[in-house]
């Protein structure tokens, strides 16, 4: 019996497929990233990360304004528009990699980001909800439990899709990516129905949770923008500019991070799953902190779950661009991090149900468990064969 594809392939994770030392640069323009020294690369990386942070704040603000004024509704305005906006770095890297035929980069870019974006909730719990009850206690609702279930379902299909044949492609569409997109849309429909009410006491809301309804901070932002005289056209222009900045900065992050990993001798697996993944998750962190500080804890959790459910939909986009079945080319580390993402999501779903009241080391018990599991998982990356 011949060894499987996964047994031959080197482990690759996060948003970085290999370090520069593993893939020596060819003749390039003298001003390209390949010619820069480590200090300059670190500066480029930091500037790109800062640009994503600033643009992420503007994306969040203008998305809320546009969603309110255009009456897009919570499902479209929050789950779709904000999910696309905050995941623009991942979209840029995925399209760029798929266009060049390196679908492995696209796979690692998507799957490597889901675990770290879940860990963003740890930061929101520790630094956004200081004092009082933990994040999941304040945000608890059946709607968020349903969103977590959608994430788990989508990631389950991802793992199943990695086992399909590579040549199973029809009209540039692979069944795995198509099923993920369909499942995501079905999830949006169910979430829309849940938002209109559930056959449970308090319409699925837990007692003594955040109080004001989910998304109230969006209305507050829109009113503030109106009081400042911000027109809808201006909000749309700012949104477009911030989106462009995020797209460009995302690509710069990935390419400079590739070179940094080569310079410092870190494996692509470790660097991509930690430093680079954290940098490209800055939009989620900035928007989440804004929501939590405005008392909209449910929206903060919803944005993370919504983004994690959306990211695998990019496999359909990568397939359309490259003409290849993307998921069957996933490496062992990609599947490993997908399983980690499922595990971390389950912990937070359990937290939303049991609603911890105590804070340990400044965070809820569920957040502490997620943090420990993520650290252990990252340590486990270096033990993968290959």
Automatic annotation (TrEMBL):
Transmembrane residue ranges: 38-57, 69-88, 108-127, 139-161, 173-191, 233-253, 259-279, 300-323, 335-354, 361-384
GO biological process: transmembrane transport
Start and end residues of each stretch annotated as Disordered: 1-25, 201-228
Membrane topology note: Multi-pass membrane protein
Keyword Transmembrane set for record: yes
Compartment annotation: Membrane
Keyword field: Membrane, Transmembrane, Transmembrane helix
Primary location class: membrane
GO terms for cellular component: membrane
Coiled coil: none
Ranges of residues in domain Sodium/calcium exchanger membrane region: 40-190, 236-379
Protein name: Cation:H+ antiporter
Species, as recorded: Kineococcus rhizosphaerae
Taxonomic lineage from the root: Bacteria, Bacillati, Actinomycetota, Actinomycetes, Kineosporiales
